[in-house]
Amino acid sequence: MWLRELADGFARMEETGSRLEMVRVLAELLEAAAEEERAPIAYLVQGRLRPAFEPVRFGMGAALLRRALAAAYGVSEATVSRRYREAGDLGTVAEALAGSKSAERLGVDEAYDALLAIARVAGKGAQQRKVDGLAALLRRIGAREARYVTRVVQGRLRLGVGDQTLLEAIAAAALGGRGKKPAVEHAYNIRPDVGWVAETAFQGGERALRAAAPAIGVPIRPELAQRLNSAEAILERLGTVQAEPKYDGFRLQLHRRGDEIHAFSRRLEDVTGMFPDVAEAIRRQLEIDEAILEGEAVVHNPETGEFLPFQVTMVRKRKHHVAEMAERYPLRFFVFDLLYAEGEALLAKPLAERRRRLVRALPYGPDDAAAVAEAIVTRKVDELQAFFDAMVERGLEGILAKRPDAPYHAGARNYDWIKLKRGFQATLADTIDVVLVGYLKGRGKRAALGIGSLLGAVYDPDRDRFRTVAKIGSGPSQAEWRELRRRLDEDAVDEKPRRVDSLIVPDVWVEPRLVVTVLADEITRSPMHTCGKEGKEPGYALRFPRLTDMIRPDKAAEDATTEEEILEMYRLQGAPERAGRRTEGGAARRTARPGGRKARRKGGSKAESKVQSKAGRSAARKRAA
Q1: Is residue 246 annotated as part of the catalytic site, yes or no?
Q2: What does the pLDDT read at residue 582?
């Protein structure tokens, strides 16, 4: 397939407002492609070159891209900058500068290899060599191709193709229909590499996809929990449960083969270098040479045993001064699952068996950095409630209750895992993770900051879209508002993103990438928001939302709270109106959690000040509890 043909397909997807049409166009591209081109096309349509767990990044910001465009088309960088300010998109600028000049007939595979070579440039003079390489590629291709090549390098493809849309297209192209998507999704959950999935679907069909097995070094998509509001409701749903603490930490999946360790975040990023103490603990303590483990890394005070909040743990997720941070903020890695051991996939085994094998494989003492997460097995309400109360007393979020006979459902959110979190002094007894899709500039003092409120959305996986649920105007300090605006402006776009469904038009639209945690008083019906909206019926919104956690770098946009979860929470708070299925469980049981404004501590960096203040607030809440 020629690169021009792929660019034409991208243009058709960009022009349509229909998700089904996007699936059809993408399926046609995959069907028409040569065997060796399907994996590159699957990556490129996502605006990347390799799966998320491989650290292949272009490392070219807007300044380097402007330099490359200037070199490619023989104009000044000032001209490129002026056109960029006018158009708001470097891809459009590249297309205009390329004009109608003659171009080579470049194949998709050749263009892909050139882009991969640019991304892998490293060492002395790497920036200039990347600029030269991109300029050389742009000189060889036509205007439409230049639009999308530039956007891929910038990381802003703007097609609106999420994972679910791509998987549906693979099913339609390789298996004969969109209805075969569950087989494609199953393989993707086990091995989340769209290139591999596309190749497997075309070469081996549904049987090969269903036979997908875990591989060391390829992260498995994590299983997620549903929520209920009381111990009684959980036991009514599950019967006997295995209950574990719910840590407010950084979820990690560790892969071991001998002394080689890989750590992956829930976003499937390789974060091995950021957690050397966890990797060393697994090398030393784990008694099997090949394994895939899941657990939660939490910063703790080794003298008091106190667990510190998520913001403190996130200080550890950094590329620089890793050893210093490891000493200042020691981690304990609580392992709660064993998914693979010595060549055997354990996903289909019951949780009770996986835990027995985990306990045998990971001996630990009170001072070891890795430990098996504690657990109880019960079917009694008073025992489950007592365990929950004990976890809250220790400063944890609550508990996770799991079905002991359940397999591990990679990438799924179902009632085999149910979370029960400590309540708040509010009607809505849980926090919500929303993805930011825009912001309003505000008035008065906020006008000086350039940002006044945030437009937040939740995820609808069935239609692969984000639907608004809140305008958030409180929570951050002035410094945090400025930081939010800086981060959001990096993803600002000049029109509504393709996957966003919104009736509200903010002053600035942003690509749905950044996730924040929000607390609200309750969920109400709203004619202004699209979450849960069907036809002329109103949608659902968060009442009095306020930010409790800044940007969650451990969560992708698709990890935000789902639309279905919002509807379920609406039912759980006892709303009398219809909201879909029958209400689960009974009355909520809540534990009061005192609020309070954070106080800055003197000394230390701004980042550490913020961390310490949140840690202090957490300690105060625990004392009050």
Answers
A1: yes
A2: 33
